UniProtKB/TrEMBL annotation:
Residues 4-196 form the Cation efflux protein transmembrane domain. This is Cation transporter. It holds the Pfam family ZT_dimer. InterPro entries: Cation_efflux, Cation_efflux_CTD, Cation_efflux_CTD_sf, Cation_efflux_TM, Cation_efflux_TMD_sf, CDF_Transporter. The lineage of its organism: Bacteria, Pseudomonadati, Pseudomonadota, Alphaproteobacteria, Acetobacterales. It is a multi-pass membrane protein. One of its GO terms (biological process) is intracellular zinc ion homeostasis. The chain crosses the membrane at residues 37-57, 69-90, 102-123, 143-165. Residues 200-278 form the Cation efflux protein cytoplasmic domain. Belongs to the cation diffusion facilitator (CDF) transporter (TC 2.A.4) family.
Length: 294
């Protein structure tokens, strides 16, 4: 998927470069520059997906899944820098306004590249959601933002020869830059939630809590449930209260049953259960939080 993304980006870049070469439009040049970033992003996504797929080792006992979040942040920074470059081009063109040579053929070429990007963005977003891949999801969002920019450019560049508004070309460049800037900040914000181990949605945490309650027959209580997700892997930990007279083997069987039930809900999961005696139960303690009574 990531390798195919590189190929698609190169094809789209070639089409957009041709659109600028035919038209001489600064706005279409800005769009082509933004697509250069798509090529670099595709290469980075290939690295991130491959690195994140590596199994856990002695130096990375929790796996390498956060590589995707790291790359998504780096990609966001590159997007912001690209936006600043495009803004500088828009500023230059605003001070040296000239009419595009052939805006309509250039706009049509750019529109064909936009169609390719739209199809590819939807594929990337679907695959990212399916495989819980932050790198693929970010790449899809990035490409989709390029589609909306191409649509705006198509309309704007076609209006230039009709309305004779020459200032519309640098204005479109500036709008492309602002769209890219907004996308970059959004990518960084979304990726930071994974790097900072933000908790999953409350409804999912509640579902896991209910699963623990249903599968934990024989135990007295579970509390201090904590969850986080790295890529497609969930990390779950909580304390399990068992009767003092319960044998270790029986407590172990309960833990196995709970783990199997959680994995049926979440899929790939690393689960840590801390078994505790009755006197550490929280259900009779006022103000206790995160308590799941069996």
């Amino acid at each position: 998927m990531a390798r195919l993304s590189i190929l698609v980006s190169l094809v789209v870049l070639g089409i957009k470069y041709a659109a600028w070469a035919v038209s001489g439009s600064g706005a279409l040049l800005s769009d082509a520059i933004e697509t250069i970033l798509n090529v670099l992003a595709s290469v980075g996504t290939l690295w991130a997906v491959a690195f994140a797929a590596r199994p856990a080792d002695d130096n990375h006992p929790y796996g390498h899944g956060k590589a995707e979040y790291v790359w998504a942040v780096i990609e966001g920074v590159l997007v912001v820098l690209t936006a600043l470059v495009i803004l500088s081009i828009a500023g230059h063109d605003a001070l040296h306004i000239q009419a595009p040579e052939a805006p309509l053929p250039g706009a049509l070429l750019n529109a064909s590249a936009g169609v390719i990007n739209l199809i590819w963005a939807l594929i990337l977003r679907r695959m990212g959601k399916k495989h819980h891949s932050q790198a693929l999801s970010s790449a899809g969002d990035h490409v989709l933002s390029d589609v909306w920019a191409s649509l705006a450019l198509l309309i704007g560049v076609c209006l230039i020869p009709i309305l004779h508004w020459l200032w519309l070309d640098p204005l479109l460049s500036a709008l492309v830059a602002l769209n890219v800037l907004w996308t970059g900040f959004g990518m960084m914000r979304h990726s930071m939630t994974g790097l900072l181990d933000e908790a999953p949605p409350p409804e999912l945490v509640h579902e896991v809590g209910q699963t623990i309650t249903q599968a934990g027959q024989g135990a007295l209580e579970a509390h201090d449930l904590r969850m986080r997700r790295v890529g497609a892997l969930y990390f779950v930990e909580f304390h399990l209260i068992v009767p003092d007279e319960m044998r270790i083997t029986d407590a172990h069987d309960i833990c196995d049953r709970i783990e199997n039930a959680i994995r049926a809900v979440l899929g790939r999961s690393s689960i840590h259960i801390h078994v505790e005696p009755e006197d550490l139960a929280k259900r009779h303690k006022p103000g206790a939080s995160g308590v799941l009574v069996m």
